[in-house]
Amino acid sequence: MPEDDQDGGEWRDIAQLPPLSAFDEGLYAHVQKLTSFGWIRIFSRRASAEPRYSILRIYILPFDVGLRLVDRQSNTLNLALRSLVGELDVSTDAWDGFYAPRKAKKFDMWATEEEGSLFWMFNRLPSLTPSVGLVKEKYAREALEDLLDPASLLPGLKTQLYPYQRRSAGLMVQREAVASLELDPRLEHRIAPDGSSYYYSARDMTFLRHPRYYEASRGGVLAETMGLGKTLICLATILATKDHLPKIPAPYSMRPVRPSVARLADIAISATNRKSIPWKVEFRRIRHATGDEMVSCREKLMQSPASYEIPIPPTRWNRKTIEPPPKKMTLAPTTIIVVPRNLCKQWQSEIKKHVHKDVLRVLVMDDTKKALPLPEELRLNDIVLFTRSRFEMEIKDGADDLGRRLGTTSRECRCSYKGASRDRDCQCLRADALYDSPLKHLHFKRLIVDEGHFFSNSGSVAATVANKLIAADHRWVVSGTPAKDLLGVEVDMSAAENLWHTPSTKDSRDAILNQRRHFSTKDDLGGAIKSLGALATHFLRIKPWCASDTPDEHAEWDDYVYRHEHARKRTYSGFSTCLMRTMQAMVVKTTPEDVEKDIDLPPLSHEVVRLEPSFYDKLTANLFTLVLTANAVTSERTDVDYLFHKNSLKARSQLISNLRQSAFFWTGFSEADVLASLKSSNGYLSKEGTACTEPDRVLLTETLAFADTILQSEGWKSLSRSHELGLFVEDWPSESAEHWGFDTAHKPLLTGVSQLLEAQKHVNERVTQEDPSEGLAGAGIRALAAARHCTAKNDVGDKPEAEKSVMTKSGIPISSIDGEPILRRRASLSKTSPRKPPKAFKVVKPQKKQRRTKAANKSDTGSSDDALLSATAPSPPTAAQEHTPNEGKTSLPTDSPFLRSRIIGTTSAKLSYLVSQILKHYRQEKILVFYDGDNVAYYIAQMLDLLHIKHEIYAKSLAAHLKSEYVVRFDQEEQDRVLLMDVRNAAFGLNIRSASRIYFVNPVCRPDIEAQAIKRAHRIGQTRKVWCETLVLKNTVEERMLDRSKCMTRSEHREAKVLEDDGDIRQIIQSARIIPVDEHESHGYGQMAPLEEPQQLWSRPGWEQFMGSRKHPAPSGKKRKSRAEDDEMQDYAATDGSGPSKGKVIRRGLAFVDCTDANHGPYAVDADGEEDDSDDEPILDRWQRRSSALGPPPEQGLDAMSKRLNSFMPFVNGDESLIGMRPRRVQDESAVDARTSIASGSNLRKLSIGELLNEEQRPPEPHTAPRGIGLLKEILRLL
């Protein structure tokens, strides 16, 4: 400002500025107000270079000075200060009195920006080295020395730690042991123009002379990258601090006041407990040095555990208030570990692997029905391992069995009276009926949460239990992804390698970091950053983010971790330094460079294998092309009928999911679907007045022309009807080939994998007989009935499939958007299943309604499958025939024609390649197969069963405790060679380092998911080179979608919640075209995808051991609660062999109609009866044998009971709806015989109700089916 009347050169203190009316409403007025209220002081002098101007030096009074004299609550003055500060020049020249407008440096009133995105900062966190000198407490310092000494092995630990693991464990111990203060992360240390220091909070516009400190977090996040041994680091920390007690909180650590002088022993015990001295550690040293067990002292210390009391203030004070007793808390050197249920077994396995036996006392709480021990017993454990579901059950604390809780005020009982008395039938809530959790009575050493990012939600049950019931000195989250999508650069490098970038070198690492270096409002405003803030606020309780008693001390996360360039609004202009300092204070992580100095992981090779699709692969791909083209043309690409309309999201997503899964194999389309699509499309083309363009008409016509190729394929029709995956067999025995083939050609023979399993079992079980092929033709008729008969039902009472509408939107069959086809599961040798299988198909053969006589039945046996079955299937061997010349042999003779039969190919190119690779490597290496879709897992599992390769299925819907068991078993047991895993389960902390071969059956097309899946095997402990292959079919939509996903940026992947959200992906799907099929591919050997080496079908090496290892069903995890559930579980056990099996299971994979009785109509006959029933035995012989075992027929007609049974039994009345009824479990063979006697009608024994009820008291007669309550129950069940 112009200045004429002031002296130059000297700085003068200006106590009050003269009034200038022209500037009263501007900056000058703000300066006047601030000066008058003592917020600032002003000094003035002339500018050295420009004497026409004067310079004002402004001193701001720090906010932590003069608190009694200066009012800091005025909003007006705060706004005035903000306006003034924004105009200040803070350059050194201006402060010294030199006026240079061009060199002016404005004061930055916003938070200092931290360069980079959250991903950049997280991966640039420096590796910290623990310092022994900082730890003053004796025992913690010794523990840290043990951890950091590379020459020593930690006591109790079997495994030698890597240097970076020692440092990480040491940092955990140091952070727990050192009570330090850290600068409030909201404050920035800045230098004033005069060189002095001050502290500034931008969001609050606060200037402080002295720093403000908060107690540093005594826990944090162990965020080592996946596969670097986080579990081992935690175990090392626990072992190093074994028997170290937590500290008594300062407010409750007062010396006790005794009424009299205590004994010296009591004083010593009190001092030991008050200072939390780990006396057990000292006693172990004395015993090791002198051999003295210190029994007397040990007993006294055990009888007086360290504890403290917390006074509980009453709810309300009045004249009648009774002060409640204080709450007693006992110190426990125990670590609580909470893990996802599927990782519980893995944690137990890691403890057993890395820790010597009996060194740690571990209590596993994985059973929801198991109660916690009392606090006195609970505190004696070193580790309490909770599953998250069991941990959440402690929320019942303070509630009764009905979930009721006591209120703050007592209420008068108003329950009803007992009868006519005046005594109340009191159902009121009583204090002694409330659950009292033992957890809230102990003060634990630490709480560790594996995959703890789930605890970031403060409203979750697990977080509520942790915050309300658990008192622990230290809280740790163990996760390589501490927040959503916040991964280490190593995982992104793995993804980059999967996308065929440069190998994992420093240059490639820096290149990936630079790709995501800059702050992005799309990636950095939600998700990961909010989860990280919630974790610090609600679980780790890091100040100043966590709630406190003083409102001023609580800070909103989003207000301070971002740079906001507005006084009130949130502009999210970037991250502030506050975030970086907060992360450094809470995260324990080693940089990739430091890890690489300590270890060298085996190399990883990942490539895409592009396979030539088989004939059936092309049929499936062209069927989806037919559907997409028909829909696009007939809907004229408008309205909701069009699959890519905005309101058709659900149908489009399901169809695209089916399309991706169909690249492996698909049987969801039926002949009716194809015909309906043809009819709909041809009807549209013949319609006049449509808006169909000529290119669309040509395209649809060409697509429809291919449908004839599909309908001419008998093999495709059979596979579609039976929902089986086809296998090709060479040199099948000619006498039974026609009964096992899915089409008329038998060179090679096409059949289903389930049928081939049955054929294999049939012959293998008869290798000791003279002719193992006996009955093979009859077994083939039964096995192929579902594929040859088109009248199928999904369940009893459903209308036939042919009667259902097969079309939904224009040109879209329902089956194409109806999820995976329901597979008809037969009895499997596999122990595991991805999910409970659906009900088996019921096959109904067309029958004449009139009853047939035996003579009539015999007259047309030549044209009936049942008659052929009776003619070809012999009776089981009698006692005289049991001893054959081949008894004792376990394989077929070398000249047997069965040894020439070979599996030479499949209908799926991917399955043929996958199986060939598994056969090549499974003896030397374990194999991990990632699939997408339960049917894919079923098909692969059946193929492995056929080849006698032991495997497990880790499915998304599998019970959590079984998931954990399967991972541990696969990792440790040598006989488990292949693990099939749903790719959606690949990111949950699993350790499968025993596998060195990884196959993705379908491209994942998501780099993060694929990289995390690979990290299951490529991790610490892996000793082999890891080979990874992704299978893709050439010249298909799948291949083009994969190529597009490789080109998508991370932001594009994040924006596309599903792949088809990407415009280019949608365009690829919409532009699908017919894959040409050569003439030679439609028949013979051209149809199949060949195996690299043909595989022996019957009497494979080791078949007996494999069959024996698969006889025991998987344990049942839940109690059945209803008859419906019981039936489903029986169906499950009968069809897949993986459900509970307490009694005998009768598998009804297929039922037949028995018309051999002239007096009764056709009734259901069990396809697989008792153990003594042979599949080869003719139906008539079987029923005659059963009838003869029941004794002579009754002399007179049926009594009243029998008549009532006859009137209700559908077997006797010929009800065809029960053909192929669901499986039933019976307790013994007598129930089967009893049911047989009912079904036989003419051989029904005369039993009165009294005989039925009293029969159980008498032993059964020889050769007579036992009767009694069990029989009555079975009769009632059948009714």
- Radius of gyration equals 40 Å
What's the overall average pLDDT, rounded? 75
Helix amount: 25-40%
Structural category: alpha/beta
Shape: globular
Q: What's the story with the biggest beta sheet?
A: 8 strands, mixed
Query: Are there runs of 5+ residues with pLDDT below 50, and where?
Result: 1-7, 497-504, 791-805, 824-888, 1111-1267
DSSP strand count: 34
Distance between the termini: 107 Å
Q: Note the total helix count.
A: 47
> Into which percentage range does the β-strand content fall?
5-15%
Lay out the secondary structure:
Elements: E1 12-14, H1 27-36, E2 40-46, E3 54-60, H2 75-85, H3 92-95, E4 113-114, H4 118-123, H5 138-148, H6 163-177, E5 181-183, E6 188-191, E7 197-201, E8 206-208, E9 213-215, E10 220-222, H7 230-240, H8 264-274, H9 279-290, H10 295-303, E11 307-310, E12 327-339, H11 344-354, E13 362-365, H12 375-378, E14 383-387, H13 388-392, E15 442-450, H14 461-469, E16 471-478, H15 489-498, H16 506-515, H17 528-539, H18 557-561, E17 575-576, H19 577-586, E18 587-588, H20 592-598, E19 604-611, H21 615-634, H22 649-661, H23 671-686, H24 694-705, H25 707-711, H26 714-722, E20 726-730, H27 734-737, E21 749-752, H28 753-764, H29 776-783, H30 785-788, E22 792-793, E23 842-843, H31 854-859, H32 865-872, E24 902-906, H33 909-921, E25 926-931, H34 934-946, E26 951-954, H35 960-972, E27 978-982, E28 995-1000, H36 1007-1014, E29 1026-1033, H37 1037-1047, H38 1050-1055, H39 1063-1070, E30 1089-1096, H40 1103-1109, H41 1123-1136, E31 1144-1145, E32 1152-1154, E33 1163-1165, H42 1179-1189, H43 1200-1208, H44 1210-1213, E34 1225-1226, H45 1229-1240, H46 1249-1254, ...
Parallel strand pairs: 10-16, 10-18, 12-14, 12-15, 13-14, 15-16, 19-29, 25-27, 25-28, 26-27, 28-29
Antiparallel strand pairs: 1-2, 2-3, 4-17, 5-9, 6-7, 7-8, 11-12, 20-21, 20-24, 22-23, 24-30, 31-34, 32-33
Helix pairs in contact: 1-2, 5-6, 6-7, 11-35, 15-16, 15-36, 21-23, 21-24, 28-29, 28-34, 29-32, 37-39, 45-47
